[in-house]
Design goal:
Layout: H1 3-14, H2 23-32, H3 37-40, E1 46-50, H4 52-65, H5 74-80, E2 84-88, H6 90-107, H7 111-121, E3 126-127, H8 132-138, H9 147-155, E4 161-162, H10 167-170, E5 175-176, H11 178-199, H12 209-220, H13 223-226, H14 231-245, H15 248-261, H16 270-301
Parallel strand pairs: 1-2, 1-4, 2-3, 4-5
Helix pairs in contact: 1-16, 4-6, 4-7, 5-11, 8-9, 11-16, 12-14, 12-15
């Protein structure tokens, strides 16, 4: 294997374990640390109402088809990533609990297992009662049961109702399909890797050339000393160096400390530079993938929201 491929494989392996639910930590960091905004960019988030048929489908998959106990449905994954804020009317609770015995019998799934999954699942939903007057006016439509969901979506200014029922659109609501949720899941996974690299300080995006020059001066004093260090130490050094580059006040103090701690080293190892470049490429790749998936989802999420 060539040296270039080794670097690529190593960088990829570093971020292979990044999960979509890491996004909630990045969201918190952006809220608490506004200085990171220019480097990290925005992370999309949407408010939706979830229909009963989607929840029942998820419960069946969790109880009957799931092979890995840690696996999640697409909807649960985007909820835990906080890409979606999921709401439901109290009518959903009633419908699910009424239909579980029937689903259990028809699909030959243990009722206790379904109920246990449901107890966990419903904690992921925010339950809110829609305006009665709005519900009443919508109940004259094709499917009166859908009135609760469409009305709630209007009340909370949601992007729409996630459903397998096309009647949502026929009654004036914005119908969001499960395929749209899958696109948001793929977006969450890709942007999580992209953000993880940026947060680690490895990506070059947004770092000025002048700042990089100062960083290289600091790395030169450490190069020989870290040449035998484990790979994760080298990456940590790069992360720390680029982090310092974003904060001029801390940069001078840190570089001075490095120079005084280790002296007599003249050459900078190319190994670190290779990791920086490869990480930047990986970050850009996942950033592009995230954009594609988000644009696909937005074709449904943006309907009926002009102005």
């Amino acid at each position: 294997m060539s040296a270039e491929n080794k670097v690529s494989d190593f960088i990829t392996s570093l971020f292979r374990g990044v999960r979509s639910d890491h996004l909630k930590h990045f969201r918190f960091a952006l809220e608490e640390w506004h200085e990171l905004q220019p480097l990290l960019g925005d992370v999309a988030r949407f408010r939706v109402v979830v229909d009963t048929n989607v929840v029942l489908g998820d419960l069946l998959w969790l109880c009957k088809k799931r092979k890995n106990e840690e696996a999640k449905t697409s909807l649960l994954e985007v909820i835990e990533a906080e890409t979606i804020e999921a709401y439901a009317p109290p009518a959903l609770i009633k419908e699910v609990e009424e239909k579980l015995p029937y689903v259990s019998k028809k699909r030959k799934v243990d009722i206790e297992k379904l109920q246990a999954q449901w107890e966990t699942y419903k904690t992921k939903l925010t339950i809110q009662e829609p305006e009665p007057a709005s519900v009443k006016s919508l109940q004259q439509g094709v499917d009166p049961d859908d009135a609760f969901f469409i009305s709630l979506a209007e009340d909370i200014s949601a992007h729409g109702v996630v459903s397998k029922d096309h009647h949502i659109g026929m009654m004036g609501g914005n119908w969001i399909t499960v395929e749209c949720v899958t696109s948001l899941r793929n977006y969450s996974r890709a942007i999580s890797v992209n953000m993880s690299i940026k947060v680690s300080g490895v990506a070059l995006t947004g770092v000025a050339i002048e700042s990089i020059r100062h960083v290289v001066l600091g790395i030169k004093t450490l190069a020989a000393a870290i040449s035998r260090a484990p790979d994760w130490v080298k990456i940590a050094l790069v992360a720390g160096s680029l982090f310092v580059a974003l904060h001029p006040g801390a940069r001078a103090k840190a570089i001075q400390w490095v120079k005084s701690a280790i002296t007599g080293i003249k050459d900078v190892t190319p190994y670190i530079a290779e990791h920086i470049a490869e990480a930047a490429v990986l970050s850009e790749k996942h950033g592009t993938e995230a954009k594609v998936h988000l644009e696909k989802a937005m074709t449904q999420l943006d309907r009926n929201r002009e102005g």
